[in-house]
Write a structure and sequence with these properties.
Blueprint lengths: L6 H7 L5 H7 L6 E5 L5 H7 L4 E5 L3 H10 L4 E3 L13 E7 L7 H11 E14 L4 H11 L6 H15 L10 E15 L1 H8 L3 H4 L3 H18 L6 E14 L12
Parallel strand pairs: 1-2, 1-4, 2-3, 4-5
Antiparallel strand pairs: 5-7, 6-7
């Protein structure tokens, strides 16, 4: 619930998912889409351009306020992945953007399965800067500033955490099959101030102490100014990691219905 404190900046500075990634996530003839943990609606707006009816589910009232203002055509409701306030078999797709690691899979997966129609799609996307690019990875180190660990050890630990965050583990007996994954790279033009501001929308920085937060952001600004001193805008490498699965038939035949 820390993100609500920076809701406006979150909406302005966080990267929206790229169009080709959303195209890959959304099934054909999707009539009703549910965006769970919708935040300020970065994915919601992309879904609304493709799907006739979109329901955004978000627990934080401050995030919902920004979402509603930006997406007045979308139904916005209070809820979370473990308790979605929708009827059984009422959606063709349930989507989670950069929030799956906040949910309890043992409770969220059955709840998503309840809301989806047979053959419906459960899809997850994580959109962030591409740390496979050397200077992006170095910038993360600059902000974190972990002098007690070697760079290699710190990088390995951070990447392991990110991989866990991007992992969808279905509980035993989960009602999904036909799992597939894809990733999509893109660039985003940003000023140095906007890149620094983007770091301030992540939970580790939001919840840090005032001095620690200020020091980390100051290090980021100094590094970017040194590396890109002549640039008005920086082409920031981004990547969207995507996962999707199909809901099996409630008749219990195991294979998802495809139509």
């Amino acid at each position: 619930m820390s993100f609500g404190a920076v809701a406006v900046e979150y909406d302005r500075l966080r990267p929206a998912p790229p169009e080709d990634a959303v195209d890959w996530l959304v099934p054909e003839r999707c009539g009703v889409a549910v965006d769970v943990a919708a935040g300020t609606g970065l994915l919601t707006r992309a879904l609304a351009r493709r799907v006739p009816q979109v329901v955004a589910v978000e627990p934080d009232v401050r995030m919902r306020a920004v979402l509603s203002a930006r997406s007045p055509q979308v139904s916005v409701v209070e809820g979370r992945g473990e308790l979605i306030p929708l009827a059984e078999a009422s959606a063709d797709g349930v989507f989670v953007s950069s929030a799956w690691h906040w949910m309890d899979p043992e409770r969220a997966v059955p709840e998503i399965g309840r809301v989806l129609r047979d053959g419906g799609r459960f899809a997850v996307i994580w959109t962030s800067r591409d740390r496979a690019i050397d200077w992006v990875c170095e910038l993360d180190r600059v902000v974190a500033s972990a002098p007690t660990e070697s760079s290699a050890a710190a990088d390995a630990a951070a990447e392991a955490r990110r991989r866990r965050h991007r992992d969808v583990t279905l509980p035993e007996g989960a009602l999904f099959g036909e799992v597939s994954r894809a990733s999509f790279g893109f660039t985003r033009m940003m000023t140095i101030s906007d890149v620094v501001g983007m770091f301030a929308t992540y939970s580790g920085v939001i919840t840090a102490g005032r001095e620690e937060k200020a020091a980390g952001l100051a290090r980021a600004r100094a590094a970017l100014t040194e590396w890109f001193s002549d640039a008005e805008d920086i082409a920031v490498p981004m990547r969207a990691w995507c996962w999707r699965a199909e809901r099996v038939n409630r008749a219990g035949h195991g294979k998802p219905v495809t139509s």
